[in-house]
Every structure is written in structure tokens, then in C-alpha cells.
Amino acid sequence: MKRRVARTVLGGGAVAALLLLAGFLACAREEKIPPYGLDSRPASQCPAPARPLDAAGVTLERVFADTAFAYPVAMVQEPGESGDWYLVEQPGQIRAFNADGLFPRTVADLRRKVVFRGEAGLLGMAFHPDWLNNRLVFLSYTGLNAARRLASFVSRFRMTGVPAQIDLASEKVLLEVAQPFNNHNGGGIAFGPDGFLYIGLGDGGSAGDPHDNGQNRNVLLGKMLRIDVDRGDPYAIPAGNPFAAGGGRPEIFAWGFRNPWRWSFDRASGDLWVGDVGQNRWEEIDRVLPGGNYGWRIREGAHCFRPSDCDPRGLVDPVVEYPHQEGCSVTAGFVYHGAAIPALRGVFIFGDYCSGNIWGIFHDADGHPLRRLLAASGRNISAFAQDRAGEVYVLAYNGVISRLAPAGGSPAAFPPLLSQTGFVDPGAPKRPSACLIPYDVVEPFWSDGAAKERFFYLPGPARITIDGQGHLDFPVGSVLVKNFLLDGRWIETRLLIRHDDGEWAGYSYEWNEAESDAALLASGKVRRVQGRDWTYPSRAQCLQCHTAAAGRALGTEIVQLNRSFAYAASGRSANQLLTYEHIGLLAAPLPAPPELLPALPRSADGNSGLNARAKSYLHVNCSYCHRPGGTGRGEMDLRFDTALPAMNICDAAPLLGDLGIAGARLAAPGAPERSIILQRLKRQDVFRMPPIGNNLADAAGILLLETWLQNLAGCQ
Asked: Which long-range contacts (CB under 8 A, 24 or more apart) does 156-164 make?
């Protein structure tokens, strides 16, 4: 009975008290160990240094910001008083708007006709010199010919109505050229000062010009052409063309080009300036004369492409060239004739698609051409444009249009020492500033086996948005900091900064031998460290890897950050994304709880499937370039969530060279030895992938991809 009474008493108020006590203790435990790594965002601020200006005093100011553009590749101004702009979008539309960027309208939609992929699409537009009277306009695009194969077309159209529209039913095809491969389409068109229509065509694609089209004067590929559209049917040959009387195709004006991507006439002198995209080493700018042989595939730039077959006699040297340490795809521009920047008058302006660098061609006292950096834009420059006043515009592939403008001030100084940046303790630079938030990724990029520490700075009270691809989009003023250590030795710290113009820029600091501080590098460098080479990237190379298509800030995406991290400041381990949401770093709540959000598998995690591990490795080490809109050439899409058939690698012939491998494929099921994506990973020469920074092959990554390819049974 006593026991029963005791139970009764215990089952009453005592149990309730115990339950309350247990609840209190549980709450205490929750308060003591919350599911967040940090309790609040850092209170301290360390503002990012301003972008250093070049001594040329040139900057870019954004224009037409109220209108969205998709993959702009050309922009021309309408003849006459209106001054309306016509912008060519590579997928197949032409948009028109007034000189202030207002009242945009679609004047032509050729998306059903145009083949848009990689370098193909709607590529050029030119108004007839007598457009005010005949209303004729000419377009250049890639489409399918009667045999359903890719071809380049140059067609004439008539414009009608007010406001003007292009009558697609009025099309008359003037020129059709079959394209043996999917790249090197060229596609630029323009009327010269002589009234003739000029057309630029690439060598037909693949790598190394396998059909030797550049040097074959009996084909139109790899050439600059000139035709008379006012005579003949569909055109006549100008009498001054080099082969008008025989010896080659009469349309040819000059030859020996790999891919003349964007070009223009100097409105004062009539000179024709062409940017010819190189292959593995050199980019070049040419001043083109009739009958000139510009060297491809004998030479790349002014250098032998194949030393065993290199006779330079009769070849025209480029005006200037630059190596792939400074970019990877030249975009030619215009000779500046504006009034805003007097120091640039008469200077030819050009840029690079990969690095975003913009240069001008000046001349020394002896008249020799000099290439001078004007601006590091951070943009993927797809084209330039020039208005009637001679001012020059820059078109970026992401749709942003800017105009060259005077910088207005002295060149800004960037902190020469890491200890002066504000992102480390000035007295102990290895210690991060309190303004930084540490983070880590699921799958690290291979960097010659270096260990890495990662941090980011977010200016308060700014917040991060998450885009449709799961990238964290950091606001202006944000900074990413990464330390590199080899066997415990500090060798490099990199800053990636989103400047006030909205564009990113990278800066590399080299640690001294005493590891007491690190000095800012003005250019790239290779240093011998512990018996091996370590590559410090140039600022141009930073943006060749940190592509706009991949969100610039590589690794800061949901699939990489959706993991637990041990926060030293709190002594707690917690999910990074949940922590960011808790401390107010995100502009909107996470789209789902972390356990329902995607995360990459570790490529070294044997508990994950082989296919998932291989795709994770490709995503991190390759997809920043090889994805839609990326800087990688070809049509590969190596993002983790892309299904194998859509990756465009399985049993696909390589477009950029077979490395001398018989039956080569990008990814050959069951045959790693024939798989270019693997063989390039093994190389340590100009054909290696990734192309920048690594000097040591990743043995574990190579073994993983070998095993994956060996076990790949098909392409579904």
C-alpha cells in the first residue's frame, strides 16, 4: 500500500515538477548548444579597398541599365537623325531602343531560324550605306542548310513601318557556307568605306584547323570576304579583290584567320582592324590589307603553331599580340574618335572575353605599336560598339553595356601589404580580422595539394541573395579571402573583391620567407616552393577561372556550403547555411531546410556512388568554365546536376583537338585512354586542364575519373 501511495504521489505533483524540470533542462541545453555556429553577424567593419585605376585614367560607366539584354554580340546605330541603337542578341533577336536606352522594342525574332549554341547564333548586322532610301539591312547567322547541317548565312532584309521592323519574309540569302564543326563561326559583317560588304568567317572549327581552311584559297572559311551587294545576283565581285581574276575564291579579301571575332573600320583612315582568336597560346590584333595572309595555321600570332611546318615567308605579322596569361579570347573594338577621353583619340581599343582586360594600341617615339592596359573590367567582353560621336561602348555577355569614360582622379593605390588591407590583424597577419566569417566547402578545388583557409566579409547591413543556380550572390563591397598553405607553410593569400561598379576583381599576395607578411603582386608569378613550382595567378587569370557564368565567387553555392562547420569563435559545429540564415546574412529565408537542400558528395567518399563522385569532381574542377555562358570553348556542361546525355561529353568527338589519340572522345565509355577530359587532366603542358595555376597532377582525381570512365557502360 505504501508503494502504491508513493506512486500516486509521484504520479501527481512530483511528476509534473520533474517534467517541468526536465523541460527547463532541455531548454537550457538548447540555449547552451543551439543549432547555429554563430549568434550574430560580426559587428566590426573592414571596408574593401577601391579598385586600383590604371594610369590611363579610364573607367567604365554603365548605360542602358533599364533594359535587359540576352547574350549581346553586336550593337549598331541606325543611320539618320533618330540615333536609335540596334542590339543583336546571339539567341536570335534584335532589340532596338533610343539613344538614351529607352522604349526598347523587338524589331526581329529569328529564333526559329537561328541555331544558337556555343559560338553559333545570330552574329552580325549591318545597315546598307543608302539605308535612308532603300531600307535594306543585312544579317549574319548560323542555321541549318537543306541537308540539315550547320551553315553560316548572310542575308538581305527590308525594313518597313514606323517604328521600323525587319520584314523576315523579305529575306534573300546572299551567301551560304557549310560549317564542318560547331565552333569558329566568325560572323561579323560591316560595310567598308568603299561601299562593299565585308564578311568575317572562322576556319570551320575543331582545333588546329584540321582541314587547313585558313591557308586554302579555294574555300571561304578562315577568310575576310568582300562582296558588292548592289550589283550581280546575288552579288558581284569587286574588281580590286585579290583573286577576282583567278587564283582563289574571288570573294576573298584576305586569308589565314582562325576566328576573326569582331572587327571594325577606322572611320577616319578606313583601316580594317581584326581580332583573330588564338588557340592555346596567343591572341592577336591585325590591320588587314587586301591579299594579306595572316598566318593561321602556320602561325598562332607571330609564333610557329607547328615548328615542323613553319615557313613565315609572305605572312603578315600581327600589330600586337598577347599570351594566354592575360586572356584567352580576343574581342576587337574600334579606333577611338570621341571627345570624352582626349588621350585616346586615334587609339585602337580592344579587349578579352575571358579576363575582361581592355587595352589600347599606342606607339612609341619610333612608331612601334605598344599594347597598354586601359582597364580591368571584370566583364566577359563579347563586343564593342561606337556611336556617331566616336565614343566606344563595351558589351558584356551577361547583358551589361558600358561606355568608356574618364576616370576622374588620380590612380587609386591598393594596399601593398596584406597587413594593410584591414582583413587581418596588422600585427599578426596570419590571424583574420574580426570582420571575417570563416567557411569551408564540401569538395575543394585541386590546388597542387595546398591546404586552404576560407573567409568572407559582408558589409553591414548588406545581405546575400541566392540566384536560380544556387549561387550566393554577394553584394557590392563583399570580399572573399583564401589562404594557401603547403605542408604548413604560408605561401599565398588571395582576395576576391566586388567593387563599387558591381564587378569582381582578384588580388594575390605572396608571403615572405619569414611568413611575417605578404606583398601584393602586380602580375602573375611562378615561385619555387619546397622543391616544386607554385603559380601565383595574375589579376586577369583570376577572372578566367572565377567566371561570371559560375557566379564569380566559386564555391559559395548551396551544394558546396550545405555542410557542418566548426566555428572557433563559438566552439560549436553547425550547418553553415542555417547559421547564415540565423544571423541575418540572407536576404530571404532558405528555400528549404538544409536536410532537404542539395549537397555535393565528397569525391573521396567511398560511401557515395561512383557516378556522383566523378560528377562532383568535374563540377568543382571544370564546370566554372564548361557550362552554358562559360568561357570554356565547346558545348560541355559539367555541372553536377546536368544529366549525362546533356553534359555533351559522352561519346562526343572533341572540337578542340584530339591530342593525337585515335578515336578520341571527350568521354569514351569503357575507354579512359581515349577520353580527352581525362587525358587533359594528366597533361602538364599547354593542353592541360584546368589551364591555369596547377603544376602538379591530381593523382586521386585522375584515378577517380579513370575508374568512372572504365565503368561507364553507355551515355544514358
From this structure: 156/229, 156/234, 157/108, 159/107, 159/131, 159/135, 160/135, 163/84, 163/96, 163/105, 163/107, 164/78, 164/96, 164/107, 164/135
Regarding whether 208 and 274 lie in a shared domain, the answer is yes
Under DSSP, is residue 20 helix (H, G, I), strand (E, B) or coil? helix
Considering the domain architecture, whether residues 227 and 356 belong to the same structural domain is answered as: yes
Asked if residue 372 and residue 256 are part of one domain, the reply reads yes
Contacts of 597 (CB under 8 A, 6+ apart): 558, 562, 577, 590, 591
The residues, any chain, with a CB within 8 Å of residue 666's CB and separated by 6 or more, are 636, 648, 649, 650, 652, 653, 654, 675, 676, 677
77 shares its domain with 222: yes
Q: What CA–CA distances, in Å, run from 508 to 484, 535, 606, 689?
A: 11, 11, 35, 21
Report residue 397's pLDDT band, with 50, 70 and 90 as the boundaries: very high
Residue 410: its pLDDT value, please? Answer: 59
User: Picking from 52-61, 638-647, 659-668, 689-698, which range would have the lowest pLDDT averaged per residue?
Assistant: 52-61
Q: Which of 596, 618, 652 represents a domain boundary (last residue)?
A: 596
Amino acid 629 reads G
What is the rounded distance in angstroms from the CA atom of residue 397 to the CA atom of residue 131? 29
The single-letter DSSP state of residue 53 is P
**Among 197-206, 302-311, 559-568, where is mean pLDDT lowest?**
302-311
- Could you tell me which of 567, 576, 554 has the C-alpha nearest to residue 494? 554
Q: Please check whether residue 324 is in contact with residue 286, taking contact to mean a CB–CB distance below 8 angstroms.
A: no
- On whether both 449 and 481 belong to a single domain, the answer is yes
Q: What is the DSSP string of 489-502?
A: EEEEEEEEEE-TTS
pLDDT higher than 90, residue 631: no
Residue 384 and residue 377 in contact, taking contact as beta carbons nearer than 8 Å = no
| Distance of alpha carbon 227 from alpha carbon 146, whole angstroms | 24
Share of the chain above pLDDT 90, in %: 79
Q: How many domains does the chain have?
A: 3
Percent of the chain with pLDDT over 70: 94
Mean pLDDT lowest among 309-313, 384-388, 452-456, 687-691 = 687-691
> Among 406, 432, 458, which residue terminates a domain?
406
**Do both 479 and 362 map to the same domain?**
no
b/e code 178-209 from CB counts within 10 Å (16+ = b): ebebbbbbbbbbbbeeeebbbbbbbbbbbbbb
- Buried-exposed string 104-141: b where 16+ CB fall within 10 A, e elsewhere: beebbbbeebbbbbbbbbbbbbbbbbebeeebbbbbbb
Domain holding 281, by residue range, is 58-406
Asked whether residue 586 falls in the same domain as residue 698, the answer is: no
For 599, the grid coordinates are: 549537397
Residues 614 and 582 in one domain: no
Residue by residue, DSSP assigns 631-650 as SSSSS----TTS-GGGGT-B
